[in-house]
Amino acid sequence: MDGPALEQLVAFERVVREGSFSRAALALHIGQPAVSSRIQALEAAVGGALFRRGRRITLTTLGETFLPYTRRVLDLVAEGVETARLTQEGRRGRITLGVLGSLAGTVVGPALATFMAAHPEVDCLVRSGDHESMLTMLLDGIVELALVVWPCAPALEPELRVLFTLREPVVLVAGRRHPLAGRKQVTRGDVARLGRPFYRLRWWQSHHGAIDRLAAATGRSIELPMESAKHLVERGLGVGFFTSAAIADDVRRGTLTEIAVRDMAPVTRESALVRRIRAAPMSPAATKLCALIRTEAEGLGLCRPARGGR
Fold first, then answer.
1. Which CATH code for domain 93-166+269-299?
2. Where are the alpha helices (DSSP H) in 122-254?
3. CATH 3.40.190.10 residue spans of the chain
4. Which of 13, 89, 174, 281 has the lowest CB atom count within 10 Å?
5. In 3-state terms, the chain is what percent helix, strand and coil (to 5)?
6. What whole-number distance in Å separates Cα of residue 186 and Cα of residue 80?
7. Cα 162 from chain centroid?
8. How far, in Å, CA of 121 to CA of 94, rounded?
9. pLDDT value at position 54?
10. CB 50 within 8 A of CB 12
């Protein structure tokens, strides 16, 4: 037998509250025959009478037993409707995001802080790491959005939708007391002579050719994660090419120095906020967070403003 319909539960609870079928009908804005029909259908479903009919309506033992469950169901439905409404407005829900470690603090961090202050009831799960890890999490459904290096492997591009792209300079960085930091002009020869050890960093899917050649010219290069290399460079131990977002705060504080290599072409890294093409539509909350991340990136000069934006 099918379970009772929601309208039957509503009619039952309203009759109990109003104390009569006629007043329940008025409260529900339906006719009394419709209320009676719903109660009869509900009684058929539960297998017995819920009310004692007479000059005064009272609950049977079955009705008294069934009433708490009815109210629990109606409360749960009301809570679900309210949660769905808030989710549709972007004030409830859950967002999962994967982000390159080099962009987690400078770009995503401030955007996430703004979002969480305005939407404290939205659950946010953010993972950071290298490009391969973030892409795997996205394709496995662990995160719904990912900020990854772009372009990625050609075989994967048809599965991904780009929401926006970022383009950031990759710059040579040294500690403020390093010999290269005090020079007005620096050439590749200077880097080869003074930039030892030279740190080769995986800020892209593969090492950049021009930087690889420069690393070879130094005669002493070490491959390190970006965070480890940054700590060493701050202490005056070696140099390396970092993405600008990864070292922006350190440069502002004066603990690191950007060095322009005048006889070397500019190097950039592109990244993109992507999602799976076959994924469910984005929630309003996720859409708002994406907009905040883009605004933060625009403010740092890492991507072009959206149409109609600043």
1. 3.40.190.10
2. 131-139, 188-194, 209-218, 226-234, 244-253
3. 93-166+269-299
4. 281
5. 45, 25, 30
6. 63
7. 15
8. 9
9. 80
10. yes
Share of the chain above pLDDT 90, in %: 65
How far is the C-alpha of 127 from the C-alpha of 263, rounded, in Å?
Answer: 38
pLDDT band at 255 (very low <50, low <70, confident <90, very high): very high
User: Which tokens go with 107?
Assistant: 């770009």
The pair of structure tokens assigned to 104 is 């987690």
User: Residue 224 corresponds to which amino acid?
Assistant: L
Task: Give the CATH class of 6-88.
Answer: mainly alpha
- DSSP for 81-100 reads HHHHHHHHTTSSEEEEEEEE
pTM: 0.67
- Say which amino acid occupies 228: S
Residues 6+ apart with CB under 8 A from 111: 289, 292, 293, 295, 296
What class does CATH assign to 168-267? alpha beta
Which tokens sit at 62? 């079955």
Which amino acid, residue 159? E
Beta strands in the chain (DSSP E): 51-52, 58-59, 93-100, 122-129, 145-149, 160-175, 198-201, 221-224, 239-243, 256-259, 267-276
